[in-house]
Amino acid sequence: MVNDKELFQKGLKDGIAIGLSYIPAAMAISIAATRQNFPFGIWELMSALLYSTSALAAILNLLSNGATAFLIYILTFSIMNFRHVLFSLSLSQKLDSKIGVFGRILFAPFNTDEIYSIVMQQPGKVKSSYLLGISIIPYLGQVVGVTAGFLFTQSLPESLKSAMGITLYAVFLALIVPPMRKSVQVLIAVVLAGIISWALECIPAVKASLPAGAPMIICTLLTCTLGAIFMPVNSEDEELEEEMKKSNM
Amino acid sequence: MDSKFLLILSLVLFGISCLMRMIPLIFCKGKIKSKFLNSFLYYIPFAVMTSIVIPEVFNSTSSVVSAVSGVVLAVVLGLLGQNMLVIALSSTALVFIIENFILHLFN
Question: Does A248 map to a domain?
């Protein structure tokens, strides 16, 4: 039986790679954010609270489009984060029954895509000491990256800042393209979403009838519905379960 | 955008994010079995990100030529498996070079 200290150390160790991988992403999003001229404190707080590169990027995009309706931000953010409901659902079976409501509340904000997938790969039930260990370094990585990115942009000349209009979109492309290479279904979904989004925003009559931020929500719902009907995928959980059955874990 | 709006926005979104992650973690014991729902959720991030990029990216810089070049470079580097920071910086640098040096040659 492994004790709590060892589990905590194992968690810390598993968190190192995740934390390192967060630094460049956080720097990139922070560089993109300087276009908005955020005060340092506000941006630091926003990124510390939201703790998700893709959600932050979606919010930045809405801000740069000048969306002022709270509902659009809430809808976009909820759609963006909906997968965490699913993660939490499957994670709830994985946690040690000794972890009470308070512990679960405390861990919830740290349950990112990457941490979730590492925790799910652990054999057996997962204890609180391991969760504590794995939560720390990735979060520090995010904070360090955001701060470094912000400070970096302060020293840049104005002429370079105007070229940074593309930075946010390059961040998104960096998130979209690698999975496209691995999965034809993702490739088709991306092309489909591109066509729908183009149609919603470039056909004048359609664009004029929609409020800021609405094309994104419509495009997402339409693409995902078509994708789920015509290209259903097995969830990662099922694959993981099958692997676990094979290895008798 | 004023600081007060951003502050309230951050707090509200943080609250939503916590609720979405906590409620299933505390109360739910079941798994989502529906293949439709699982597939739908799987495509969400890609659909959202694509709809953010297209068509706005082509108007994100001072010329369509530099924007298209930036996109092409980002896609190629993504296909080559480069990390996000490399992609973001290279793409920005290319746009800068094209706008400040190359396009001036034609004006």
Answer: no
Q: Is the pLDDT of residue A243 over 60?
A: no
Q: From B74, which residue of chain A is nearest by alpha-carbon distance?
A: A170
ipTM of the complex: 0.84
| Cα distance between residue A31 and residue A239, in whole Å | 37
Residues of B in contact with A224 (CB under 8 A): 39-41, 43-44, 47
Q: Which residues contact A49 (CB under 8 A, 6 or more apart)?
A: B10, B11, B13, B14, B17
Chain A residues close to B22, C-beta within 8 Å: 88, 104-105, 108
The pLDDT assigned to A249 comes to 38
CB A224 within 8 A of CB A181: no
Distance of CA A7 to the CA centre of its chain: 26
What residues make up the domain containing B12? 1-30
Same domain, B18 and B66: no
